[in-house]
């Protein structure tokens, strides 16, 4: 075990993409509730009081070795395996990709659809981004687009607005909501304004705002407040757009993100604006980052015959075996995968219903150390181990499955 | 490992003054003097040229901006069908090469070590994780400083040099780095304050310090700490017409301290001619020839699709309109630096691109001392590293160079002195600019050469008049004595080592840094440094750590 992995005095919270490292390690979920409801929810979900449950095959407790062998047999026999979930750390993802490559599997994160809203926009036209420290120290005008971003990231605004900013007067900062009615977790002391979209849907509202910023639209053609917001955006010294792709759950949402990024690129011709990406919960950024550096492609991927290909819209119903990886909470099991024979490498409490083989594994940052990618995609934190529960890291389990598969003739 | 004898090859080992047909022997991963008697393994190398493994001292192989570039361009990744006699991981890629493909392809070209030149301290974990997934080659990285708020605050407060030295040493240690790079000194920070250009003596809009002061402080720190690689400088005004004046002033600014100017092709532009864009290669080469403290790598461009990924967000903002395809990602990063990713297609019928190509070659041919020049394309910014064999042929073969030159935009041809440069690189000179010089510039005493005791990183090329074909596919490649490539086919994919330097420093700087993390940053200082155990995990528990330990000079 890594020496720094046992340092008990530093807790990196793995329960949302912000990866806060200023919270105390939770003894109980009640302890966390006050600090962060998302962390408390995650803590409850992983059933922190690990009772020593072992591996299971068809509901019966078995030795881990038996479960590993059964999993390897099933993977070797599967014709169209799919590795899904992918809520975990860098090492888990490395092992998952190696296994997918060996078995000719498809591999997809459970929240791929949300991740793709940002990804497709990036791959379409690019954009402008910033990180948490720049946002905290510089932003004088923050525009929140779409839903209430604080429901997914309860401490976001606390982390942005509570520390004293370095390059802007604290009192000069403003927060504007475009699309959302209110914020559940707004920090005290920052004025929040709401701009009414005047009956426009979100896409039209953003396109109208962009037209105002570009001077392409007469003031009277836009809803009240848009023209003055555009003026304030243009005169802001460092503005910030916030959205949570997970909230933009409608068809064509990637085009909305593309419009937001075009708005940012336009504003940057004269002043400085950027988006602070809000993602990374349940390991989606971690999984996509590792996939991209190893293969060139963000997820989903399809491995077959010694080739890897970008496979943007995999269908769970095509799979004849699902290997579900869940050592971080918050994954939604896909409806389309119900009925697909399932093997799970999962933290206690995160096993999907009806999995035929279950192999328990450690939550990174709780039962094992692990690397996780933060919401802004730049900072990777090494989350130390907190708890002495005798759970193997997911990567170790997958590596042992791979070793067992290698002794079998793969198709 | 038992003794292996490579028999009868032509050993081209300029570090040891060798260019002769002889046997080359190694055992246990090290070169040994050829003993009498038979070796356990003998390989006939008749007709082959034996060189030390290639060393790329400036190649963007790992870290956030490279990963953004990969993600940005799914259309640029084609499956790579790598010849191999062992099961390899599936690989693909072209310009922004993924890690697996980079390791395999470098080894297939006879390269055995690669250095990532722009590791942001706040992104160092990811850079090491990516390099850890780059098989076969040794690796290391230069930590990027110069637009980070901590250094700019120290300079604004006129902190003593000793304190700056401590901060630089702490950075090297905390991020497990091999050197220090500065990119557009202060300019990435100035861009966050909406400055669009930043020349050597401009005052930073917030801190008041100038790029000249930043350069001097960092070059002095690197020298004081005894870090073998000189300060690695991406100068101000990248890509701007007329930037040759800034580049010459940058050379003078360090007042004789060691200085490595990287991708100097992008910093060698004048303003003459109809299009107000001309070659400054002659002036730059004259200065490099005169200033013995200066080394360079070229950053040669090649025609075709690539992607530029740079820490220089300010310069990349200027390039948004040139993006091909039309997409760009700009980023401000964590009181640390920034980045800009702009896909680019260099065209021989573009006046500017054609002249950039010629300028790079002019520099290669006009700089006299091959020990102070390194062959790079600033992968992938000038071109993917896979174009190195073609570049080598351009340097070795005047007739071939002339043929290529004839295809350029006519106005660019009229503005280049390339046809008048008759020089052709010898094999020994190629060995210098691709191995011996980068090893010397990095302080890798046992790499880049084939003397007894050196690492058995060896490439055996079948000698051919067509140098491109020759250097594209070595017959044999050994990494630390392990046969990794035979006739282009991969034989083994060991984990390479990580190279780091660790100068000593006064730990008092850490108290100040802890305060800075509290006032500026969004992660705890206590978790920032990367420990050896963690680095080992990043490298898949397979690599070795080469600590090049230097103590601070008195």
Automatic annotation (TrEMBL), chain A:
Gene3D superfamilies noted in UniProt: TPP-binding domain (3.40.50.1220)
Annotated protein name in UniProt: Molybdenum/tungsten formylmethanofuran dehydrogenases, subunit B
UniProtKB/TrEMBL annotation, chain B:
GO molecular function list: hydrolase activity, acting on carbon-nitrogen (but not peptide) bonds
UniProt-listed SUPFAM superfamilies: Composite domain of metallo-dependent hydrolases, Metallo-dependent hydrolases
Short name of any one Pfam family annotated for the protein: Amidohydro_3
Domain (Amidohydrolase) ranges: 41-490
NCBIfam families to which the protein is assigned, alphabetical: one_C_dehyd_A (TIGR03121)
PANTHER family according to UniProt: COLLAPSIN RESPONSE MEDIATOR PROTEIN (PTHR11647:SF1), HYDRANTOINASE/DIHYDROPYRIMIDINASE FAMILY MEMBER (PTHR11647)
Record-given protein name: Formylmethanofuran dehydrogenase subunit A
Organism: Candidatus Desulfobacillus denitrificans
Phylogenetic placement of the source organism: Bacteria, Pseudomonadati, Pseudomonadota, Betaproteobacteria, Candidatus Desulfobacillus
